[in-house]
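Morning!

This is the sequence you dropped in the shared folder:
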Amino acid sequence: MSVSATGLLHAAHAFTRTRWLANRLRTRADVERHRARQLARMMRETAPRIPATRDIATFGDLPIIDKATLLANFAAYNRAGITLDEVRAALESNARQVRGYAYGCSTGTSGNRGYFVISQAEQFTWLGTILAKTLPDALWRRHKVALALPAISSLYRSASGGSRIQLSFYDLAEGIDAWGPRLAVDAPDTIVAPPKVLRALAERGQLPARNIFSGAEVLDPLDRAVIEAATGARVREIYMATEGLFGVSCPLGTLHLAEDAVAFEWEPVPGSTLVKPVVTDFTRRAQLMARYRMNDLLDLSGAPCACGSPLQAVARIEGRQDDLFILPARDGGTRLVTPDVLRNAVVGSDPRIDDFRIVQTGAAMVEVGLPEAIDLAPTKAVLIALFDRLGVGSVEVARRAIDIPYDRKLRRVRREWQGAQALSATTKE
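The structure's back. Tokens below.
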């Protein structure tokens, strides 16, 4: 795929602007002023051209939407009036564009795929932005970048013809055995892959890159420790979803939100210190992504990062709203237990645990996957004690196998029981 001169100009402009903003936004007050200016511009220039928002003048009057709302009103939220059926038909036929717009979709981990449309200019704006945050020397130094990500879209492939960035793609569905040797021969200096893939490569001695970025899944400290010990390199995160680019780790490893491109609002998660983000990407023009409620659970850091960036630091991405355990309470109601609490209980039950799964499979049924050499009994006792402290009633804890799904996202803590679907939906409001 060749990269047009116009596309490269868009990428270079976004790269330069992102680097300029990194120097310009020095305090939280700077960030807030930038946010206010960009939201005002969005409401003045973009919202009037989107059918769903053309009659709304003030940002605060925009409704908060979610994936279901966007999918049900897809044509009303993009400038060209492209329907969801058109995008799905293009996917089935492997068409490169829909009415001159690029498109893409999520992997559907939560059971319902997300879709987007984006202009060519926005593709390269995205490219320039992410390069500025991950490889700030990309304008004057050549890089060989390996991408092993699910549902690789035209967003990534837009960079493949650039003279400074040589991209190679690796299909997760084929498995590491199929392309691991080719990766070693390609010898990229930078790799972006899910943490489970990075860990497997590191354990095999097939991770030559010095710039290591985890993406597409939650980076668990267990995986980070293995990767960094095996490679001697720091693992950085790219927080990105179908809805946009939301954060990138600084060189010190702290994940910073991309507040130079996205406005964040926060909704508290009942019974915890976690929050859910409501995002507005003010760089988008073809499809408005404004006041969109994400399904992620974040633990925000209250301490400034030593790198000096005023962009909000994230202590951890803890999982998804859908993975809250909804367990029976002794008083007859229910108790919500967040993924971070469950993870910490399992990992803290035995210092030898370097991988695990904990899955709610029924109203009062929890299954735990541990390495074969580790007895379930101590972990089970810790979980039962935790549930007792939280006022949870009787819950059965059983053992399950540990799977490593290379063709889909790994979620170590997840709720498979769908009987709580209606209750879960009420917790999102």
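Headline: The CA atoms of residues 39 and 373 lie 54 Å apart.

More detail when I'm at my desk.
O.
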